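The records we work with from here on pair a chain with its fold. These numbers are not coordinates but entries in a learned vocabulary of local backbone shapes. To see the layout at work, look at the sequence and tokens printed below:
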Amino acid sequence: MAEFVDANGLVYHALLERISDGSLAPGTKLREGALALEFGTSRTPVREALRTLAAEGLVEIAQNRGATVRAWTAEQIYESYGLRAVLQAHAGRLAAANSNPEDVEKLQAVQTQMEQLLARRPATFLDDLARLNAEFHATVVGMAKSTLLESMINTLTSVSMVGRTFRGFETEDLERSMMHHRDIIRGIAAGDAELVAAVMTSHILAARPAALAMLQASAESPKRSAAAH
């Protein structure tokens, strides 16, 4: 059983990475047989990984047509960032109302790691920043203590879209993002719900142009897929 679970995780994380870094472009077909052969597994772990990715909004599975990497339109990205700004601002309000020193310390620890990465800039720093950024926001949402709100935000938040957005950030974008995080932490620590909501709104909306730019860049580049052959 452990080997089966490990195979599921191996395939899932490998496909997630390829979708996130653009190696599997939107619209790419994901063929179970080809992927099973590539990863040296049966089709079952591939099928389970694709189902998980579909549940996360990264893959679309259609009857008789199989699985494809989800293709976001500019309109969908624009709207999703607008909705996320509203929902995550509300999460920030609730987090400020429910804050405790332990949660604030956790946020600060994640933020410190992000700023250290930004200062050092190792080869994988953008991917690592995207991961830590997701942890930061997940912590804020967790502090809101609302399972309904958490589910709604997760539905709108595509790991691949957010990861690619970080790759489109210039230095000033990254520095602005760090400044927003620091202000969010201060507001939560002070219990200032409206300050946190205002900063969170600006924070999410400020990333929208980069997400749209990355979508445009992706549309202009040739599609690549190791699973399409």
Notes: Residues 1-5, 222-229 have pLDDT under 50 and may be disordered.
